[in-house]
Amino acid sequence: MGGLLLDYNKRHLLKILCKNSRTPIIVLQKEIGVSYPTIKRWLTELTRTGLKFTVSLDMTQLGFYHEYFIKVQLNDTPDPRSLKSLFADDIYSQLVVLTEGDFDLFIWAVSTSPEEYEEKFEAKIRMELDDYIEDWVAHGLLAKRHGFLPIHPNLLNKSSVLDEIDKMLLTLLIKNARVSATKLSKQLGLSKPAVIYRMQRLLKSGIIKRFTCYLPASKIGSVIIRGWQVYGKKEDFETVGRKITKLYKGVRLADTLAYAIVPDGGLDNLNIETYLSTRDIKYIERILVGAGKVTRKHEKARVKKILKGEIPIQFTGLEDLEFLLSPAEIGGP
Q: Is 332 inside a domain boundary?
């Protein structure tokens, strides 16, 4: 991947760690069938290439009930340094990327309510970028389909469901989910059993969805943000939707889909995709767009620069992905 070569055993290791990044080395050793020192060496090598151990958190359980995926067209591009500075201290934006294509700026923002989003985020950003914005389209989240996006630890300070110790604990786990309970106890000034109890409570409550890991998208050749509407009548929705889902689950594109949601606002699907070659980009677009039989509205942009946050590449596979689009619109899968 972009200079990172992964053999079968390392991919197997990453797949296990993506599902539980706190898996002990002795368990990894038995699962993969190599020695303890080999696992330690691989973890060191992968960490040097950018592998990050973190937690996947449930925004709703944290009290952030609304997520927005924003596409902005600009009539001119502001200085990236000023853009980065604008979003750096903003609590609501978790991912900000400069793109080229059908839109020029892509933002993922979260809030506790639509009013908070409109008054404290959108109004502020649009005022700051008023001279540059040509069009601003915000898609709300209807359903998540695949993957996760890491959050900035500062967001935890706005959560009303966490006490101060939980906020500190989650901040440490966001930065390194493999840190030992012993070390966490020293950093938090708690006993080891108290730390373990808090982690288990956060898991049972659903705030922590899982301990996971990822490689930053900078390790990949190209990142594409893509949205579309399915072509055809409502009764065709399921047939076409399953065709698209099967396409992404195929061997050729098995690791392509980094993140997928069902948005509102005129799109049936919104994806963040990673590619090793332009051939695979052309391959999927030939099916989605070329024949004119799958999508009637298709938008895409290539990521040029990540200004805030990260796009994670994982190795969990798509075995559990049943339907990329929204079965609710056709009365169930």
A: no
Count of domains for the chain: 4
CATH number of the domain that residue 184 is part of: 1.10.10.10
- 154 domain-assigned: no
Residue 101, domain CATH: 3.30.70.920
Domain that holds residue 254: 217-315
Whole-model pTM?
0.91
- Tell me: pLDDT of 308 over 70: yes
pLDDT at 252: 72
Helices (H), 68-129: 80-88, 114-116, 123-128
Region class of 140: left (phi > 0), else alpha (psi between -120 and 50), else beta: beta
pLDDT mean across residues, the chain: 89
pLDDT tops 50 at residue 331: no
Identify whether 290 is part of a domain. yes
Nearest residue to 57 via CA among 259, 261, 208 = 208
Instruction: Say how far apart CA 104 and CA 285 lie, in whole Å.
Output: 20
Question: Model confidence over 263-306: pLDDT tens digits?
Answer: 998 888 999 998 878 888 888 888 777 655 566 788 999 999 99
The CA distances from residue 222 to 71, 80, 154, 311, in Å, are: 19, 20, 29, 12
| DSSP-assigned beta bridge partners for residue 66 | 111
